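Ticket #4471: structure output looks truncated?

Reporter: J.K.
Steps to reproduce: submitted the chain below (181 residues) through the standard prediction queue, then opened the result file.
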Amino acid sequence: MSRVGKAPIPIPENITVKYKDRVITVESKKGSLTRAIHPAVDLKIVDGMITVDVIKNNTTNRSLHGLTRSLVANMVTGVTKGFERVLEIHGIGYRAILNGNRIEFNLGYSHPVNFNLPEGVSATVDKKNVITLAGIDKELLGQTAASIRRLRPPERYKGKGIKYAEEHIQRKAGKTGVKEA
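Returned output as attached by the reporter:
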């Protein structure tokens, strides 16, 4: 039995949760999220709490217990508070400009790189080198941040590129230029 999966998920008062035909829908003023639930697990909504139960107790089904609970908890958190991801751009001349639903990057290439934000993800650009992504779907937000980071990953010698704000780049020493005798 999963320790994560056993924990019930409290439902805040300002959201509605519907579970029908193995599909859960969580709605609030911020938006709505829908997800299909795997046949190996089942959800029960009782007294303002969502619990995840394993239908048949075997290794495969137990592995889905904690995963399903985490996915549903992220849905509830997303429609109540939302999620945020911060990216930083390092490098001389590297910058980002927000144009509506598109971010234009200058990343040292011979051309600017345009990135269209998916539906459900919003962005703000501060000081031309800090990008804040926000949304209610944690999975979509993380994928968008990873796609932006992939445009120019940080390199280990000078640290130039796009990195997550909390990420630490292990720097490498360059050539010393000293010849040994």
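Triage note (M.O.): checked the attachment and the full token line is present. The chain has a mean pLDDT of 92.
Status: closed, working as intended.
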